[in-house]
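Hey, sorry to bother you again with one of my protein questions. A protein chain has come my way and I'm curious about its shape. It would help a lot if you went through both lines with me. I owe you a coffee for this, so here goes:
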Amino acid sequence: MNSVKKTIYMMLLAVLGAAEGVQGQVSITSVGQTYSQNFNALPPSGSTTWSNNSTLSSWYADRSSGNGAISFYSDNGASSGDGLYSYGTDANDRALGALPGNPGVGNLTLGLRMKNNSGSTITALTVTYSAEQWRANGSGSQTIGFSYKTSSSAITTVSGSGYTTVSSLDFTSPVTGTIGAIDGNATSNKETKSFTITGISLASGSEIMLKWYFPKLANVDHGYAIDDLSITTSNPVVYYSKSTGFLNATATWGTNTDGTGTNPSNFQGNNCMYIIANNATPTLNSNWEIQGTGSKIVLGTGSSINFTIPAANTVTGTIDLASNSTLTINSETVPAIGSKASSSSIIFNNANPQAIPAGTYNNLTITGGGTKSIAGSITINGTLTFTSGKLQLGTYDLTIGSSGSISGASSTNYIITNSTGGVLRQVPNSATNITYPVGTSTSYNPVVLSQTAAGTTDNFEVRVFGGVSTSYNASDAATGTAITSDVVTKTWAISESTPGGSNMSITLQWNAADEGTSFSRSTCYVAHYTSGAWQSVAAAAASGTGPYTRQLTGVTSFSPFSVIDNSSPLPVRMLSFSGKPGDAGNELEWITASEVNNKGFEIERRDESSGDFVFVGFVNGHGTTSMVNNYIYNDDITESAFYRLKQVDFDGRFEYSQIIYIDRSNVNSTFSNGNISINIYPNPAVNSVSVEVADGADWELNVKLVDINGKEVNVPVQQKSADGRKLTLDVSAVRKGVYFIESVNGQNKLSQKLLIL
């Protein structure tokens, strides 16, 4: 929200909080009132002890074991201490969380106390909140349980019996594994929960406690939070369907739970709720329109009910899915989908295009043939099942939660990545093969990722698109000349959520029709585009008889990949391009792994007055060679400057390198006694950074990259000199920002700030 609205909201929250603090509960003064809590008033730092109805007005907590008060921390998920938390990475955006642990607090419970002072009976509450995970530690998943309790007298504890569970508001951890702090605001780490609780009969003067239960499991210490909570009271007219009859007929509905009682006169009344019950397989025989303000359909009451919308009919209105319910949509027109319980399922079944609404799903099935599309980013926490048909992503992402899976994908049933949208899945460090069933509109080109304990559990996104290029930009879009011979004409773009720490095996699959002219399956390899060039490895024969696969192991950074043979006419393969200040000017250095038809390199420096790059020199190339070659050029200026290389072929074609910056204002990090110095260049860095011990200094170069929080960022070493006095780090996969290069030698430590662009 904007700053003005935010200020007003916080002022109102403070006033309401003061009033509630006296009563000990939220006062419901009218039916239709909404209570909202974004938890942003929680402290962004420090620690204290939790106090019921004081730390946060009208909120209560309890635990199953341990002595003394419950600790209350402010954290971003890094801490493993058990207790309650103010979670967040921003001081102005907090969430109320818990990390249950033993010995200590054991199971934890949070509760919100409310009282009906409206003068009318409240029969329904719509609860909506963002369920977030801020820490993962352990291979198991936990389910946060929701329940409520009503009483004609005061409820001052969240312990004890008498609570009614509402599984549609439960939350199961999306991330498992030992990976520490994670961003609970990231789409893959949270889920919006929303459900209308009916039949509560909260009389005026009575109280209700809403409870979130955080269980402690053996060897599992995940951290969770609730955020952006809203609770709206209502007194809707509730109708239940009978065991027989079409749902579009008013005679099928009644006010009693078995469908008997008063029928609706039509389906246009305001504030009506139509609960589909009593018939395991209800359906329609004509279009069904729910048009009243605040009215909606609720599929099921917790029992197994499969509502099928026939291909010839449509539903107008919003459908909420309760636990264990299944919605089968045979109609090409998809109704509005509201809340979806974590055990619900939706089946999209039509040969014509169907647009799948954005949101979080449990089980989702693609069948009926044809190609479905997504109308926004979606998350699957259950199973994405393919029986017949394809799913097209467009510009949106498809996230498979850590507890989710994909079933039934094949060469005819798969995910089409036809634009910037990709498939995001967790790859654990357990040698488990994780398949991404992706392809283009005409070809199935799946990817299998796997990493052993040497890697770090993380989320990886994959997409595939047609063509191979001589260069790509930071978004993995092709920017160079198309390569059509001696390659598989597909590019696989792979990225990781948290750069560093991975050790990946990548297997790419293709078909004979995907191969460019003269491609040789007997001498091919998986090539990685990094540091501005394609990197080659040892070639070998492809596996399979059609489709075919090749694997690349030991991958630690991610960007475009393709399959290339030994005869591929790729241009110069640049291993590194760097620069540093020298006594006689700015010293440029670059290394190539191989060259094809290379006339040489034009050195260009940016003119700061015009912003254009201008020619400053030329270095001859080595024509065509598979040897590693080192190049050096000195630009005799003593000013900070941006540089790039223009590699020129004999036939006139050319390619640009990445841009580097030589900073002459602050390039050295000097130990306090003044005897030791190391040079770091370029600074700022784009794709690589070199670290070099100054001549004559006695220093063993042990280097690491750390972020501003002091956490080490794992980056691969591109090159290291024989004497160990100079090395180059690959920072192409590191997020932009401020970091520090640290070098430790015994008790001595050098540290220099590094900006990565």
Summary: The first strand starts at residue 26 and ends at 28.
